[in-house]
């Protein structure tokens, strides 16, 4: 049944071209970050790591959370139109399958965009003449970022399912971005979903996490994903959708 629900969600997006539209933000991130790196090479001398710090700063700290919010709002948009939530919840489909299917499909879209960003980063490095070997730790930061994306996606789906407005969840995401930056600076970012993305992609530090911090990072992400998913499923089961 879950496979059928996932197929239905993908079918709804087939002609939307949303991935193509969302690709604009990674492109902008790479252009801005690469330009900063190019004009400050006298200071930024760690090649791939310096370039990563520039492109991922804009991407993970500002653009990616907003991108996730847009995607979640869009994937819930059809259900909010013409009171389609009523049709969904009266269909022979469990609330858990509805939420998980949306989480998986949105996660796949974000994964495609993440891979696209990584490919752009590599191409930008080559165009800028970086001669050192490509650091394997970048893939670790990339995967940690993907996990944090799932965490934020589960939260944004919860919001988008409850809020009929397309823009409101995106606005909440923007607020989360600035709160997350503040919590990161005050060293309590592990406690906030939006900060976990910055930590996972090492956008500001450019350093690997210690064993203790890695355990805390993975544990908190898993807890947040389970928590937001359970709340979302519970509300689908017990609380009427605001149509």
Automatic annotation (TrEMBL):
The UniProt record lists the keyword Transmembrane helix? yes
Q: Which CDD domains match?
A: ABC-2_lan_permease-like
Q: What would be one Pfam family of this protein?
A: ABC2_membrane_4
- Membrane-crossing residues? 20-39, 59-78, 99-122, 134-159, 171-195, 215-234
- Which keywords fit this entry according to its UniProt record? Membrane, Transmembrane, Transmembrane helix
What name goes with this protein? Multidrug ABC transporter permease
Query: Can you name the source organism?
Result: Vallitalea longa
The upper taxonomy is:
Bacteria, Bacillati, Bacillota, Clostridia, Lachnospirales
